[in-house]
TetR/AcrR family transcriptional regulator
Amino acid sequence: MAGHLGRGGHPPGRPVTDGARAGRTASARGRRPGPTETREAILAEAREMFADKGYDGTSLRAIARAAGVDPALVHHFFGTKEGVFVEAMRFPVDPAVVLPHLLSQPHERLGESIVRTFLQVWDDPDRRAPILAMLRSAMTNERAAAMMREFVTSALLVRAEAAGAVSRLSIQAAVGQMIGVMILRYVLLVEPMASASEDELVALVAPTLQRYLD
């Protein structure tokens, strides 16, 4: 939780801009910071800005300025602000990839596709951990809640609605349903939900999601 909300996402006692300072220190010694150092410096500044200013209040240009690099370099490494957020906050999926895949499915199978996508992501402990950290933070910290709300609205809900496939309320209902299932299955470990197979959960939950989306 603290990893997503602290200054720069760093543990207590660690300088908030280690990455940027490392790059500047390397330059001061006469050595240009390498791509890895520069990339990490950008992510450190981005993490801090997203936590402080929220998703909507942060721009690629501002991140670049804070990291002391050209905005074109940020674009080169991450493509868009959304791409920076996904990397900086360790968001487990890239909406720019996942959403087009989901929306390319036949409408009558959209509920099933959402269930399987959620299960694939949450079944991986490395991808599940940052989601849980963000959810816990959002439930206790208004800044964290605002950051997640802005990102989810901009990257997922608005885009899905603009594609004409589903309404914003419908996709919110579907996502809310799946978050509840994931909490029961992977956090509370409630049986038999925790040990049910993927196909069992798809057969059980997908029709409900499909009803929302229809």
The chain is about 70% helix and 0% strand.
